[in-house]
Amino acid sequence: MVRFKDIRLIALDLDDTTLCSDGSLADKTREAIEAAISSGIEVVIASGRAFNSLPRAVAEIGGIRYAITSNGAAVTKNPGGERIVSLTLHPDTIQGILELFGNELLECFIDGQAYCDARYMADPMRFGCSPAYLEYVKTTRLPVDDMPGFMRENARRLDSVDVLCASVFHRAELWEAALRLKNAYITSSSPRLIEIAAAEAGKGASLMRLCELLSVPAQCVAAFGNGDNDADMLSFAGLGVAMENATEACIAASDAVCASNDEHGVAQMIYKILGDMRKQ
């Protein structure tokens, strides 16, 4: 396993990793991130969220220069929103998604903005949205009455598409169908989501692209996550850290497990990394 003192870049998933379960950023975690940046470590956001949906509490921390968003479909300079990687879905894949899931509730991301089926937006909790994320959904998505038509109109601009499943059982029924899509990266950050991006996407693949740009070798990277969509990123990093509340796939891909998001595991591990660095 990589030595803590060699870490030069930290990639952070947000929901249920860096953020508490209520969606907030704990002061302890913010202070740890700021301490890492002050120590010369590049801290990068790595989220399934669209760029415009990133919480200001994290995105506005001084020194966070890059965000991997939409499960690796985009790498964007922060602040400002200039893209350095953009991997949009192929129109044929969009057509395949609509053939399979056109009658389901869908949301899609375009140029960093999230758009969601108006039926879901009218009452998110009816369709399984957690109360903790109700305000997040309502303040970050734009409602669309005809989502299939909207997706066809923007078929060359879609970063990613999410299928909003009514239950974990519903997702299980749809998952095998999703895997039949061509030229697609299929993943999930939630028991009720199927997340679809271009085949070349993925947090791990785009973290690798960013590391190449910054000349940071994989063994000098620490990545934190909790979901299935974080597993490839943790596998890529020299130090892959899964949260105690992580999925089985995420833990299997990790080198270490830290305390849960509500116990500020990210902050605890960052301070361990910094403590080892300061012993040099």
Describe it for me?
It is a single chain. The protein is α/β, with parallel strands linked by helices and 280 residues long. It folds into two domains: 4-86 and 202-277, Rossmann fold; 91-198, Hypothetical Protein, Haloacid Dehalogenase-like Hydrolase, Chain: A, domain 2 (2-Layer Sandwich). The protein is 35% helix and 24% strand. It is built from twelve helices and 14 strands. Strands 5-4-3-2-1-12-13-14 form an eight-stranded mixed sheet. Helix 2 (27-38) runs parallel beside helix 12 (265-277). The two termini are 18 Å apart.
Layout of secondary structure:
Elements: E1 9-12, H1 14-18, H2 27-38, E2 42-46, H3 56-59, E3 66-69, E4 74-77, E5 83-86, H4 91-101, E6 105-110, E7 113-117, H5 118-122, H6 134-140, E8 141-144, H7 147-153, E9 158-164, H8 168-178, E10 184-187, E11 193-198, H9 203-214, E12 221-225, H10 231-236, E13 239-243, H11 248-252, E14 256-258, H12 265-277
Parallel strand pairs: 1-2, 1-12, 2-3, 7-8, 12-13, 13-14
Antiparallel strand pairs: 3-4, 4-5, 6-7, 6-9, 9-11, 10-11
Helix pairs in contact: 2-12
